[in-house]
Structure formats: C-alpha cells, structure tokens
Write a structure and sequence with these properties.
By secondary structure, this protein is an alpha/beta fold. Helices cover 33% and strands 13% of the residues. It has 7 helices and 6 strands. The strands form 2 sheets. A 4-stranded mixed beta sheet has the order 3-5-4-6. A two-stranded parallel ribbon has the order 1-2. The longest helix has 17 residues.
Amino acid sequence: NIKNIINNFEKLNIVDEIIAVDNNSNDNTKQEIEKTSAKYFLEKKQGYGAALFKGLSMATSDLLVMCEPDGTFRATDIFKLLSYQDDYDCVFGTRTNKKLIEKGAKMYPMLRIGNILVGHLLEYLFRGPTLTDAGCTYKLISRNSFNEVKNNIKVIGSEFQPELMINLILKKRKIIEIPVSYTKRVGDSKITNSFYNS
C-alpha cells in the first residue's frame, strides 16, 4: 500500500517532497518506494517513533506533514490541515469524530474512548489546547516548531506521538486539533491488532 499512498499525495500537486522511511521491512517496500517520486530513507533503529523522527529530520520543507501509509488516512485531508497553517504552528488530526470513522476502521468504542481520555489527560496535565486523540499520526507541524522540540524527543516506539505533542505544548506553540477521516487499514497493526494490545 505504500506506493498507493505516495501516488495519492503526488496527484494532489501541492507537495514539495515526499519522504518514505523504511524501518527494516523484509518485503518489497524499498522497491515499491523507488517506483515513485518519494525520497527513500532506511531507519535501522526499530520503532514507529524512530521512523517518524527520521522522516521529519530529513525533510527540507517549511511545513511538515506526517501520515501513515496503511490506508487509514486520506491524502486529500491534507487540505484540511493546510487551511489552518496561517494561524497555527501545528495542526493535529483526530480520528475520534464518529461521523468520520468509516466502516471497518479500527476505532471501536473502547479504543475511541481511550484515545479521547488520553487526549484530555494531556490537555489538562500540560495546559494544552482541546485534545481528543493522543495517537493520530496525521499532523502538520511547522519546521520551526519541530526544530524547537527535536532535541527533547527521547522515545522511539508507539509513544512518540504523545511525547511530540507534549513537547510542542510545553514550547507554547499555537496548536489546534481538527477531525480527519479514518478508514479501514490495509494489513495488520502491531499496536491495535487486538483488543488487548489496544
């Protein structure tokens, strides 16, 4: 699916560069990426956070957008994120809006409630903006904002998103959270593949 999501972003004709990070895959990920215009990078340090950090660090644009290549997000939702970039340093997506959770998406009620509770916990503990999703990858962050926090990012696993959010809040960046579409995943998740893991 990685080639499909890259192609979907290419078709928008608004993205300056696309970076795809291979986190030690043992399939044809590298070959599929090389069939596109995306810049390929290998991150040998295993971890969701390590891969995202590598991509953010290698990007050269003033605005950085993160997105997982598993088919759960729509490339066209980048326009939603960009519509706020003049007024905010960071635009966080949230997958918890019921109307935008599509049939088959891995956001069953308890997982949705858990995301909302953890989001609100971050909101109250760190005096941040309204937050309803602590794990959504789809985000827009200004280059300056990332540069301010990158030396404070310590985690390399699935807890990367909350740590990134906390650091951006602590740096007093202007942040807003907006709903994005959440669709059925292609393939299995190591994090939410079962109720117990979630």
